[in-house]
Amino acid sequence: MTQKRIGILTSGGDSPGMNAAIRAIVLAAHQFDFQCIGFISGYNGLIEQDYQILTPQDVQHIIHRGGTILKSARCPQMCTVTGLNQAVSSLIKLKIDTLIVIGGDGSFNGLLAIKQNWQGQVIGLPGTIDNDLDGTDFTIGYSTAINTAIEAIDKIRDTADAFDRVFVIELMGRHSGHIAFNVGIATGAEQIISFENFSPEQAQEKIIQIVNDIAKQHQQGKSSYHIVLAENLWPGGPQALSEQLKSMVDIDTGLCVLGHIQRGGSPVAKDRILATRLGVASVHAANRGETDIMLGELKSEIVSVPLSEAIMHQKKVEENLVAAQEDILALSAQYRKRIP
Ligand code: F6P
Question: What's the 172 CA to ligand 1 centre distance in angstroms?
């Protein structure tokens, strides 16, 4: 059997389950008698040759931990020729055969750039809460992030109901609406404002629709009203939306920007299992000599897709779900029971 040296790094926004993936890679590599080297703080560790050898002992009891034991970072240096050359020199100097990167589309762009200048194998594992990568039904961390958001919004609903308040709740996702749309659906939001059903030019029209909707709901009986908003979408941000509403309706309007709470926490079962399956599969793929691929899970099967295809298009939110929200679920506010 050929001895291989596998380099591992976690890059970009961390996501719950990255540790489970690192663990699986290290344990699977041990079975093949491959050596694992973990680079610290994403591509920065590769450029600066800041690394640690990873043994099965090092990955004990990390499967339940959020974040990443290797730390993560965004690395603007990778967009420069100097940074890229340094990264490639490190791989050559450290005699790495395979580089496995756990991250999102930005991280995979870095991996593709490396591949153009290096002979070794490159493998990506989808690790981002945004779930925006093609070639996998789910990314590592997404399930935990939406469960965290759902738990938080359910709590907001209790207090919003008690005061008949309107709440604007902003969720992460960068430029993709998987988190906002699916969490909005799962929490019974009266409004979901996301990339799939809204563009900034429609802001005025949307405000009027919301104000009318709240008025109709009040005719039926007072209640809370949740507006789940995808980040980086509303002109002026969530504060602007909540201020605009406050000025138009005489109703208490609350604002919650859920932020990085969505990125942390112990991974749910689905993320631990996905990360473990993908981690083990990546070592098998390395052993078979495969390269330039991302491993994902489609319809419960582990699949391998060309790395370039995984980032060519942003994965879309299911159209049926968007239609159901627009045509059926968003009308639920009108069916309030009158409370005397
Ligand atoms: O890509 C993951 C993500 O959490 C996005 O949802 C969000 O827009 C971004 O990272 C936040 O990045 P940072 O932690 O660098 O502010």
Answer: 7
- Tokens 């040296």, residue located: 5
- CA-closest residue to ligand 1 atom 8: 174
φ, ψ of residue 164 to 5 degrees: the values are 50, 45
Q: Which atom of ligand 1 is nearest to the CA of 232?
A: 8
* Residue 339 confidence (pLDDT): 55
Higher pLDDT, 263 or 327: 263
Query: Given pLDDT bands bounded at 50, 70 and 90, which one contains residue 191?
Result: very high
DSSP 236-261: THHHHHHHHHHHHSSS-EEEEE-GGG
Which pLDDT value is given to residue 331? 74
Burial-class residue 201 by CB neighbours within 10 Å (0-12, 13-18, 19+). Answer: exposed
Catalytic residues: 130
Question: What's the gap in Å between 16 CA and the centre of ligand 1?
Answer: 13
Is residue 182 within 8 A of residue 196, CB to CB? The reply is: no
Candidates 41, 174, 56, 178; CA nearest to 101 is 41
Reply yes or no on whether the pLDDT at 1 is more than 70: no
State which ligand 1 atom lies nearest to the alpha carbon of 179: 6
pLDDT(238) > 80 = yes
User: Residue 262 CA: which ligand 1 atom is closest?
Assistant: 4
Dihedral sign (CA 299, 301, 302, 303): negative
Please give all residues whose beta carbon lies within 6 A of any atom in ligand 1, as ranges: 13, 104, 128-130, 172-174, 231, 263
Q: How far is CA 305 from CA 204, 272, 296, 297, 312, in A?
A: 42, 21, 8, 10, 12
pTM, two decimals, is 0.96
